[in-house]
């Protein structure tokens, strides 16, 4: 069975219910999630062997996060412990013209104060055949960036595919470095990148180009620039998201493998139960697709888009859908029929 | 006042809340419902005299079901007691492209182990002027099919109208008989049938024809075949459901009375609060319409469609709307204005 | 800072949750709200000084209402106490084709039994530069109408702008007077009126005209009639509401300042979390706009429409949005993007 | 089967949950209850035929109350409709040293504005063999007192036993009459009275005596005075309640039948889930006991005490326990064993 | 690390909240639990390697049970799949004098229809050093009894300690066999038995003796009889439970090792949050104690009693306490101080 | 009216409901509280003018805390803004033998990073006649200690009474200083100290003495030592808490005014709804008592004890009881009678 290892942060998410504003909340729903962990849950649901590596505080909140990982069938045996706290983010789910609102409270987390040298990556990655990281880890602190780079280098040395979700968050990157100071070296080793062209350019220090994703001519040229700068790159994919309102999204996708462009049909997504983590669902679908349909980039992309669409109907950070459910949607069954 | 008696199963429904998946649920909402009971609730709400006959276990769960019947003003005095358990079904309400999911746990229920001879139907049907059953009862067990046939025969002998909602459920019919082994005899006595043409054909052992419900020419021919095979048949009606997504349905209807075809205008139904039981709401509306507007099949059909649409906005199995509310919608007031 | 004083009734609102019908409810969500109070909350949220004056019973329910006012930063120091009860209204939130349903239980409230002479309006209005009332107060009782007229006269004497939301409720006006008996005198002193033309005509005793709000020619003529009858009138505005369903509204607006007509672009509002109080949100936005953009009636109207749209996404009676959020929408950001 | 008819008010009860104070509540639990109705529920649970007569408003809140009656198997066919509102009471459940707090909002209810002559008591009481009323009805308004007296006189004329729970509430009796103005005539016809001696004396206009319920000598003398003043009196019973704290009560009882005094053993009741309605549970138990054990006053009293104790463990106004559960406790099984 | 394997049934538990009765419930809290599984959770919490073996249906309800196991760190890799349904039990939590009420709906479960030969016990028990079963499995069906005996025999052959919690449930044993038909052979191989003397005697076909657990003289004699009949027996322990009320228990314990009697001090347990599973918590504590303090039977017994007491404060079936928390209580810290 | 200003930290409290453990929680109840703020709420409830000064982050969580202050009628106009986050603490409410558990996540809060010089204390304390602080502020960081000392010195210079609740928390004091390094200087200026003798000694660097609070002889000697070291000291009080279990506390108190010892009678407190903040309720009661009954130290102490007892019945951090409710208990009404 394919085994994927991801490295990143898991947070306690505290969300208001039924579209309440923060000041109205007398209770917060609690979930545990984070970009790279969410990818692991997707892959575990599809039947792969998924392991998540992070650093957690030694308290009951960290212990509760581990319980959630185990419930989701994500391996947790290489997690390290220490530091002060589990990162938190507060979420107020929008509706219609009012967008969702996130208040981060993740500074000083155990993961933000991780340092390189704490994890024996050679041992952790033994038997793995995929390594995943995202642009969030280098965004939280210098030492987290270094710890992530260390993992990337080992994965590269071992020779397993490396994927990165660029995941640019403007509210992070507060520690004095810009993405273009840090990301170019880290992205060197990546084989698969998820992100839109302008974000990739920005992280590599190239001026933005405002790409037209429907233009079959310019697109390969723009993507090729990434292939030039990232020697190991094999696949770039982009989620195309058209936001009609907080409750209505249109989701498509593009993939370039260095030779050909693939487009996924745009899907209507309405209503939106919870859109947080839908990018991670795309990433999880993409990794699954590239591993399981190695010669069928169209299906890999379509799988990622279908997974992303379904995630919008799932409450919480990660995508609680089965392989069969994604495949059903891939096969055109998206009318939401009752199964009975 | 018109009095309708229905015979069938009532179940405990356990549903996850706010679109949660089964594995996320820490609580299940509980309701009591079932196709034939749901029809009774509709009729009681419209002001008719409605009675439900079934078999219940002698425990607190069965007693709670009876309390719910009484609350809904459905007579319960001829219910018989015995057997092991109340049937259960688990419901996970979908959204958008993710359909709702039903897990049945109804085998070995008190109703599945009912036998003919336990109910004195002559007495039960005294004073009734309508009898209703559905294709679910013969689908759950041989002995339930026999008990239902017994009731049908008495109703026929007494000479009251008999309606049947075909209600085909592929997950049932597990006891060794096919619908075409059982249903033809039972349908013989029916005056009103609700179901699409192919389901009716399938139950009568006729090959499917994939009918075009917009084709005014072929439709009477296809329906007439049913009139040939079912000597007592007076009215066939079909709910036309176009599922845009789990949250958006389009509902129309067709009715054939042996002479003329009636069409109801298609209604947009979005969002869907709960679509389970919307077919039963159609059935309840149809019985009401046929009883109260005996010479106006168009209004009877329109009433059924309006009732069905409104049901999608009601949580739970049955249609908690008043006669006035259905009539308001019939009169074109479907814009959801605030009444204040 | 601008200071606005409003006079009216605050009620306990008891609402069923998740679209449940009254008979299904085992709990009622509780909020405190009322047309004029809701306007105050909007203004306090936008940074103005807002004060609400009313009469409350001396019990814990009245005390809870005051706590809510304080939480919302609405001044409450001139509230008077006495009478028997806080008015209540029950709300059942509709969906799709089923409209919301309000059951009023506000008769005999402390505000309904208020009498003129109990409030020292000269003192209350000292330092205020706006007074707001609505057509609800004169609709609840003769003595409330008199108490309101007393306040209006003092505000007029002091020379501060006076606004009135006509707010016609057919279920009120039960005490033997018609609006046209009472409102003409009260409206004499108003500088700003919110309401559609036919409601204004009706309250002034003029026959209805069924105006076409898109007709640039007839509209100024129709509005001018109001200016003729109300000597102090400066601005009339109307919310244009097209109800597709209980879950989907289209909101626009028109404003006439005696010289020119302004139109706001129609906005799609779907889904509707809670539409109660959306008219009050329009009123609050309009007062803010007229005070803060005195020379820009277009922006004042657009602000009111944006505020009204956003209110539909907020649970409860009043509009819990910030100035920045309304301005963002005004600037065209209505796609509901996640802020993170 | 014995048939008991009770006359009184049913209210909507709105209670905070988990000991929250009114100002903390974002939801109110809703129940329907009232002294005389609660007695009916007890009797229906014990298998008697119970009917409740009252006056309800013609709105959804009144309709919901009727649904609750039907669920509880209490007949409701003689209820009359009219008036403005259903009475409400707000309840904040205390704990330990903090007592529960009730805020009444029942003035102007449909029952308070009932008048004599609206109910055909001869017809209603046909077939009944018990009539029950309480001191609450004459406490709410003059016209309710008159309507109640009318019912009492018919019951007396027909010759069925009449019981009265004195139920003195100091916050009521606001309409200008004292209990001693009204109650003596009404109590004339009662055969069974529940209440402590001083309350009875107070209602009959006799000075308080602060009785010692353990004193076997003085007690018959004090009770006999009631027998002198109330010619039809057969049985007087008193709940003995020692309140250790809001969460810990001790419950006993005394009964005098004109000849002998009976004492019930004091029971420890802790914790208290909900003590509202525990007096009504006593009354319901007493009526059951007097009807079913006509020659065993000790058992009737013990039954009433056991029912009262069990009520403290039931959320809501009425006593949701079965005959078997009361009998089990009567038989000494009060240790709260798990039944499995 | 010590590894314990348990075999038995896991059920979906549906419980009313806040002491509501079944007929009041609009939601059921859902948990997954069962005697032998609960023991596994205790042991996993104390840091042992715990595995649970059972048979589950292949549906989402079964899958949810496995997710719960994983969350609780109980190994599930040898679970087999098949059969119709997951057993259910409904729980109504009592208070004070009203005991909790369990309605079983576990007939026809996947575990009840298990058969011997489906599990390769030699492989499952490889590396284990303890096997646990209980008297519930032979109580549900003949084939479950046979499947359990098969496991016991393999465990015995391998030579690992075997423990049995007698767990007599009078509502089970419905398939035509009495405990004394089945249990003697099964108990032959047990080294540790938990249960009171009379239950053990009853299961072995010996007349009841109503033992006095304070009598140091008779107790060894009565226990020795078990040692005579069960050749492998090393330890018998009994939970002593004095039920003051459903909310107040007193818990002690006795252990006999064939030579000496040990008594644990009786602990006050009030209030009771949830007493279901407290016997399993005792069993889990006892296994832990016997494994970890092999030469200190007093501490093993005290550990079991402390674990049992703490369980009464935990909602749900199993004992969510840490080793440190039990040890703290063992060390006398039972005053419920706040840790901060 | 007396005006009290308090300085300290307010936190977001996230608590599990119904005694659930952290790992069971799917929702956290949210409240805002903190030792010094809680004192303000008590005083505002008793009718005093109370103001709370702190430092808050400029985000929606900080804004929600201010809304809560306003709701509680605590003035907030001198709060300063800045820093990263609002401190959080997680609370798991125990029961019986399982104590409550607090997980602090308050490091790096806006209050912890406050610095002296940011608040104009001369202006803030203008018109105040009491200043309150606690030992928590110097425990969180060096700069918070300095900011607090600055406030204390100004209060002393102005000449208003200063109170300090010692509030020792062993999990704090992590920044390299011991209490005895910091507290002696800060306590110099205090007139009223709340805390047990050994805590006071520890903070002043004196060896512990394990005082006997019943010994009338030694007690004045031990307390006098504090008067020697703290020149401004007028009153020392100690809450006496005997913890029977997490659900049952016994609360008394001692006060020494330099001349005489006062004892309050011990009160039984069971059940405990929420004991967090009960010490702050004592402090709030003590300040009220000293201000309002300046010549009656016994009543001041009794008032503090009664307030503390009542707090245990209130959910959340602060004491939501009225002056009248405390006085009722002081007058001996602690039996928890229903008020109706």
Automatic annotation (TrEMBL), chains A, B, C, D, E, F:
GO molecular function annotations of the record: kinase activity
Keyword flag Protein biosynthesis: no
One Pfam family of this chain: PfkB
Gene3D superfamilies reported for this sequence: 3.40.1190.20
Domain called Carbohydrate kinase PfkB: residue spans: 1-311
Family: Belongs to the carbohydrate kinase PfkB family.
Name of the molecule in the record: Sugar kinase
Domain of life of the source: Bacteria
Keywords: Kinase, Transferase
Transmembrane residue ranges: none
